[in-house]
């Protein structure tokens, strides 16, 4: 099969698909835009089918890229001594934002600021002390830059100068 034969087969396939789409569009005149779609199929059938195929291929490619697995820290849980150090540093309180500044509930959970499932490290730079409602609400979501800046700003008040004030650290298998 030569290249010209392949283009002829693809062209006839595109014409067949365009005819099917035109028939569907004309059979359902109450669907908004169906007459416009049928007219477009009459004027540029191969171009429209090529656009649809391109869209389908690119959406599949996008799903493949977005669904790519990140490398994860082999250690999921924070060590107890790291949790204790974070609890002392935060004064035992949740580090998240409540309705009037810093949350007043006790910090019960050691939370990965960058979620472990998205490549966050299980180290002191990625640990944030959170109350149960805040940790469960955050779940595996990526925090916003504004939330990260807010915690860094609040940590200036209670964290020692040598401590990591800006939360968030990705794991790298170096």
From TrEMBL:
One protein family per Pfam: HNH
Annotated GO MF terms: endonuclease activity; nucleic acid binding; zinc ion binding
Annotated Gene3D superfamilies: 1.10.30.50
Residues in HNH nuclease domain copies: 82-136
Database matches in SMART domains: HNHc
Name the UniProt record assigns to this protein: HNH nuclease domain-containing protein
Species: Nostocoides jenkinsii Ben 74
Taxonomic classification: Bacteria, Bacillati, Actinomycetota, Actinomycetes, Micrococcales
